[in-house]
Design goal:
This protein has 371 residues and is of the alpha/beta class. Helices cover 71% and strands 8% of the residues. It folds into three domains: 90 residues, STAS domain (Transcription Regulator spoIIAA); 40 residues; 220 residues, no CATH class. Strands 1, 2, 3, 4 and 5 form a five-stranded mixed sheet that branches. It starts with 5 loop residues before the first strand and ends with a helix.
Length: 371
Amino acid sequence: MDSPAEFTVSRTEGDPVAALTGDWTAVEMGDAGVRLKNALLNTEQAKLDLSHIGRCDTAGAFAILRASEGRVAPDAITAPLGTGRLIDLVRHALKADPVPHTQARPFYDLLTRLGRGLFHVANEAYETMAFVGHLLISVARLVVSPSRMRWAPVFNVAERAGLDAIPIIIITTFFIGAVVGFLGANALAAFGAQVFAVDLIGVGVLREFGIVITAVLLAGRSASSFAAEIGSMKMNQEIDAMRTMGVDPFEALVLPRFIGLLMMIPILTFMSDLAGLSGGLVVSWTTLNISPTFFIQRLLDNVGVTQFWLGMAKGPVMALVIAGIGCRQGMEVGGDVESLGRRVTAAVVHAIFSIIMLDAVFALFYMKLNL
């Protein structure tokens, strides 16, 4: 049962003795520490008897030492073993040197952060090259011996990363196509050229939005999933166990994800193109009074199949980048949950950044080829 901290000071033939009772804790101490200090204020040599003390925590030990500072010698304290150790621990902590105040050096700190950033970039580049090299070795082994391939994980990845993503991709690109149709209708109406909204929808969806939206959604779904799955296995030392059993983690974990995503992205891009064109068709039909027959015929005549293949050509590159970034970040996970969360976030961010950058590179390449 808790009891408040109290003390009594008795004077005998020798030095005064302060006998402490009750619980000297942060909850029960109250102002007992201040009263003890005032009681020992006019004494030069005193003793402390902690034999009958109840519970004592660091707050109580701190109050006892502050009250007896300069008046009670360390060897004049009688206490049980546990309380004595706590008193000694707090006494040594009070004697510790204060943390030195470091003077702010903005320019030096800036150079330090810049150097660490450059080192981090160089280390990431090195780790990426090592990952790519290991992956190429695994692909070469698969070409030499196709029987090494585990097709069950490939189809599992194709189902989870491909088929399960079809609904969200169709819904998203449908509304993207509708938005492009609205923009075309509003912008071209001022020139009386609403019919060219069909060309805008066709080129925008087939060449850019279909593949880009598909890749961004896959980056959010698949890259994060790959990083989390492989990262959790890395944390649980399952990958180390695979190496011990003679199984190459790249062949068992990384390569199936590459092949599965590479198989499914053309299908997903095709579905995305159909959904985007459908959204544009609905908007053109309801807003511009362009019939579906005229919409499709103008797509075939003015847009053509070239724009479709230009968009589809980006698919394999996007799939390799998404799978590579997700798997690599998963392989870099450390032994704690914080590392897992950081790597999963990095997988999504790096994948989306790479998709946008690659799309810009493709746009520049197509422009040089006059496509």
